Amino acid sequence: MRVLPSLKAVLRRTALTTVLAAALAGAPGLAFAQCGGNFQDFIRGLKDEAVAAGYPIATVNGFFDGVAQDPKVLRADRAQGVFQKPFIEFSRHLISQDRLNRGQRKAQEFDNIFGRIEATYGIDRSVLLAFWAFETDYGAFQGDFNTRNALVTLAHDCRRPDLFRPQIFSALELYRQGDFEPNGTTGAWAGEIGMVQMLPGDILAHGVDADGDGHVTLKTSAADALMSGARMLSHLGWRPNEPWLQEVTLPAGMDVSRSGPAYEAPISEWSAMGVAPRRGGFAMKDTKASLLLPQGHKGPAFLAYPNFDVYFEWNQSFTYVLTAAYFATRLAGADVYDAGSPDAGLSGEQMKTLQRRLQARGHDVGAVDGILGANTRLAVQKEQMRLGLPADAWPTVALLNAL
Questions:
Q1: Closest Cα partner for 15 from 152, 262, 203, 224?
Q2: How far is CA 328 from CA 126, 209, 397, in A?
Q3: pLDDT at residue 79 above 80?
Q4: Calpha distance 185→50 (Å, rounded)
Q5: Pair (171, 309) in one structural domain
Q6: Among positive and negative, which fits the CA dihedral 370, 371, 377, 379?
Q7: Are 374 and 261 in contact (CB under 8 A)?
Q8: Burial level of 32, CB count in 10 A (0-12/13-18/19+)?
Q9: Beta strand 186-187 with 145-146: parallel, antiparallel or unpaired?
Q10: Mean of the pLDDT values across residues 37-55?
Q11: Residue at a domain's end among 305, 331, 357
C-alpha cells in the first residue's frame, strides 16, 4: 500500500521561488489577492494579477475557464494520520519484497537514464528509485485530482496560501508554454504532478527534457521525471557520490543523549563510543554524521550522513524521510534492519497528553496533534535527561507517567 503521493508537498518548508513569482511580487501597484472570501472574487483577483504580469487576457481566460473548488482536496489536506505510525510499522507498511523486486527491474529497464543521472549529478539510482516508489508506486498511481483546481482550492483556503498561491501562476506559465492542460492535467491533491510528484514551480525551475521530445513531461516520460527529480535534489544540496544512511549497532549502556538529527559528530567519535556498522565498514570515514534512533535505543539504529539532510527539503516528516532513505539503502543492497525490541510507544491520545504535559513544563512542541514531530522529540529527550532516563527521544508510558 502506498503513501498518498502528495503528502510531501504540504510538509515542504517552502515552495521554490520562481522568476514568475518574483515578477508578480514586484509588479507596481499590484494588489495581492487575499485568501478566503468569495471564491469568484478570488478568481477575478488572480486573473487581474496575471494580466498585470503581462499574460494575454485570452491565455488567462483559457487557463481559468472551468476552474472550481474541490472539497475533496480540503478533506485530503486534513486527513494525514499516516505519519502517526512509528518507524518500524510505517516502513514495513511501505516496503515489500514486491516493491523491492520492481525497483530492481526498473533500475535495469532505465539503466541508461540512471547512468546519465549518476554521471551528471552523482546521485545513486537507488535514491531516485525510492522516491519513485513511494511517491507514485513507480508511476502507477499519480493522483486523479485536477491540478489547477487543487492549487486554487488550497490557495483560497487560508491555511497555507503562501505555499500554494505562487504555484497557480507557475501552472499558468506551464500552460503558456504548452505543457499544462488546465482541465486535463491531474496529480496529487496538493498540486504535484508526475512520476516523482513535483510542484509546477519546481517543474519550471528544474524540469529536464531528458528524452529530447521538446517538452518536460513528468506524467508519461520516466526519463524526464527521473532526470528532473535528480536536478531538483542536486539544487537542494545533494553532495555527489556520497552516502546518505547506514545501519549501525550500539554498545550496551551507551549514552544516547547525543542521538538525533540535531547533533553531528565525526565518524571517529562515534567509533570511539562503540558505534559500529552492522555490516562492513563505515560508508564514509572523513565526515560528520548523526545517530538516529527512531524508536529508541532498543530499536533500529542508523548513522545519517550529510546527504540525509536533503531529504528534509523534500519532506519534513522524520518517519517518512528515514523510511525513504532506508528503502534506498535496501535497493542498493543493504540488509533488512535489525528491529530489536523497542519499548512500546504511545497511542495518539497518549501522545497528545504527553505533548500537553511537555507544554506545561515550558517546552515548545508545536500543535498538540498526537504526532511525534521534531519539537516533541527534542522536548522528550530533554525531559529524559532531567529524569535520568535513557535520552533517546522515544516517548514511552514510563516517561508519560513520570511527567
A1: 203
A2: 5, 25, 33
A3: no
A4: 20
A5: no
A6: negative
A7: yes
A8: exposed
A9: antiparallel
A10: 96
A11: 331
pLDDT at 20 over 60: no
201-239 confidence digits (pLDDT tens): 999 999 999 999 999 999 999 999 999 999 999 999 999
- Lowest average pLDDT, out of 10-24, 226-240, 251-265, goes to 10-24
* 21 has a pLDDT exceeding 50: no
- Residue 41: all three cell numbers together: 472574487
Examine residue 374 and state whether it is found in any structural domain, yes or no.
yes
Question: Which has more confidence, 10 or 361?
Answer: 361
Is the torsion defined by CA of 346, 352, 356, 358 positive or negative?
positive
Number of domains in the chain: 3
Report the alpha-carbon angle 26-27-29, nearest 5.
Answer: 115
The residue from 242, 265, 284 where one domain ends is 242
3-state secondary structure of 385: helix
Residue 33: its pLDDT value, please?
A: 57
* Domain match, 234 and 254 both: no
Grid coordinates of 297: 535505543
Closest by alpha carbon to 86, among 313, 365, 379, 293? Answer: 293
Q: Are 223 and 256 part of one and the same domain?
A: no
